[in-house]
Amino acid sequence: MKCKDLSVVNLNITEDHYEYKAPFRICDKGVCIDVDLERIEDSRILEEIKKSFSIDEPIPEMKKILMEKIIEASKLESKIFEGENCCKPDTDVAADRDIDALSMS
Fold it and tell me: Based on CB atoms within 10 Å of each CB, which residue in 54, 65, 86, 104 is the most buried?
């Protein structure tokens, strides 16, 4: 099997006090392996992936392809939310309009 045929799904990148976690799942035809990005450097993990999916490529090339797939799966957009929508009330506008209509009658 070719490494490019694998799917990288459920990528969840989080940060807590500058400690990053990025668990994801590598899948193909019902076989899935859960991996964390920080462990992708571990040769045992790469061997397990290669063996589980019967990948033809050598490990360095397989790792490169997986990293490209992880980057593609992330598609993160950088946004700044400093104070944005902080004071927006949690009310239902349609319900408020109905209540106002009833109180006017």
Answer: 65
